[in-house]
Amino acid sequence: MLSGAALALAAPAWQEEMALRDSLHRVHPRLRNRWLDKRGITLPGESAPLPASRDSGPLRLAGKYGRGPAVEVTGRGTLVALTLGSEVALLSFANPDSPVVLSEIQLDVIPRQSALYDSFLVTSDDGIEFWSISDPRAPVKRSSIPYMTGDFAIADTLLFFVRGDTFHAYSIADPVHPYQLGRCAEGGYVMAATTNVAVVQAPGDVVDFIDVSNPSAPHRAGTYPDFMLGAAVRGNLCCMVTYWITDDDNCRFDVLDISDLANVRRIAHIDGVGGYDVHLSGPLAFVSGYQYAEWEFAMVDIADSTRPSVVSRCTTSGYNEAVWADWTSNYAYVADRIGLTVVDISNLNQPVVDTCFMKASYAYDVYVYGNRAYVADYTGGLKVLDVSDPDTPTELGGADSIHATSEAVVANDSFAFIGWWPRPYLRSFDVTDPAHPALAGGLVTETKPMDMALRDTLIYLAGRLRFNVVNVARPRQPVLVGSCVTGDLQTAGISLQGRYAYVAGAYDGLYIVDVIDPRNPAPVRILSGLRSSGCKVRDTLLYFPDNDDSLHIFSVANLYAVYQIGAVGFDADVWDVDLLDNLAFVASIQAVNVVDVSDPRNPVLIGRYQTPDDVWQLTVESGRLYAASFAAGVCIFDTAHVAVAEPRSEPKQRGSARLRPPSVAKGAMRVESGGGRVRLFDVAGKKAAELKSGVNDVSRIPAGIYFVRTDSGQVHKLILQR
Prior knowledge:
The protein is mainly beta and about 725 residues long. It contains three helices and 63 strands. Mean pLDDT is about 85; it is low at about 1-10, about 45-55 and about 640-660.
């Protein structure tokens, strides 16, 4: 397993799964279950509801910067609700030239749908949540329906959604107390509704029409044979975008007469008009556009529904997901995957992009320096966050990449350095004014950095096939000082320890590179059989989250006699690791795992925090854990060690306790002491119990990590289990 031989370049199972997840993230959230079902795939975190409580062990979510790809937009008057990443932002466009972010509602999920109803915002994923926005600057969650659903529709005081194979009709006249009116057998997604009909994209690529004129007895009344990307319904008219594949992707705008649900018929269509969302306002149908340039945002005149015509189109910068507009105003709002695009439609025949707002995509890497966190946001570029108050991280500014990508970032003083594609692959930004980072310099290296480490004035870059050392003493003129071949198609993790850089590869294994002479870095060892996206070395121990779903701990005291001393398994792929005292934090699918490594021969999984999306990179800084959580932005955690309060020291007394408790206890524990007090403290420093010499009943004390302390100052870590 640890030989120096190179591996064959065959994609392992975990790499295939990552490719699937990458493809899945390019599918509209409400259609992901269909995408998986059609391929017979079940991925962890995609089908099962998340637990009611996500807190586990010594982690507490302190704050979250939840911005990610925009997937939904809706509004009322000058209030716009934008669903992006793991949040919904409420925006005021009372002054369109200066839009104001009123609040950002942080959610525990990647919401798939959002809607405004009366003075409430309604969102869905793990459940359907109702947020009071009577004061849009201070939203308050009021109630929820605990059913996972991909989409829903609201008509008057009625809410319609499908859970599993059942269609539900709810009354939300009082959103604080929603209740079910009726249900019927039906699968798929509810995409549009009136008080008479709900339009459902059903399994088998057909559109079902559910008669809800009596919501206590809903029933399927008609079917239309097509796969629907998006739809809107008004009166007896249904406008929808249908999609099919021949040799190429095809989209069509259909106009349906639904006056007789048992005999739905198409009365008109326009080829080449497509999108995930359709919104009707006045005589116009606004079509969001699809993920390819040939299907952009469009306005369709439906005043004569039998002869619809395209009024105009407009190109936006990203994959379009949703649209909302009031045709009497001058603006249309498009959620275009990388943010909110505001389109000036004052001249309906010539719409133009007015503003691109709240740009973000996928968080790949995060680096903390002082009170700032720097995020490599893939197509969103460089993001600069103020984390002086980790409970409420705020975006200070950023440098957009739009048509480029970035996956790694480090920072020092007034400069940030980010991996970039296309060339120059390494770019430096002056962040003296964080609201407006300015491109300061660049370096054309042989490969784009996929991870970077900064030491003094040198940056060590891990990338495809190459390992580079760059001098940034003059950040406006970075200089390549050394380079070597690592051989891996995808090296995505790096850890520095002493004279060595440990470079984790996804195919070839772990490269150990001697960097004592930065001008001549040289691989001295290849551990071929270890595949990962990250690693961490402390002292003589290597912590390696291998993609076989395990964290391995190796001794690297002798690089030519590396051996495993411990391991712990998980129920999902793991990608990165960082350390704090005796805890290892391990990134995985939709979670941060917490491992006690106080005894590296016997690491113990002691907690797991469920995150809204997959965690790619972890950074521990000043006692806090920062997790780059892909579409969910950045999650910031407090850790147990930060919360431990040290009791005041007391003078040693003759005859004080000599402590020898176990490391792990369950139900009862034996304490051997030579007199004096023995006290049990929780991770917040609060005394949980006074212990006596001999057997102690601890069955009523909640499970978790505790500290046993004697009056002589001895401290012993204890894990209570159930």
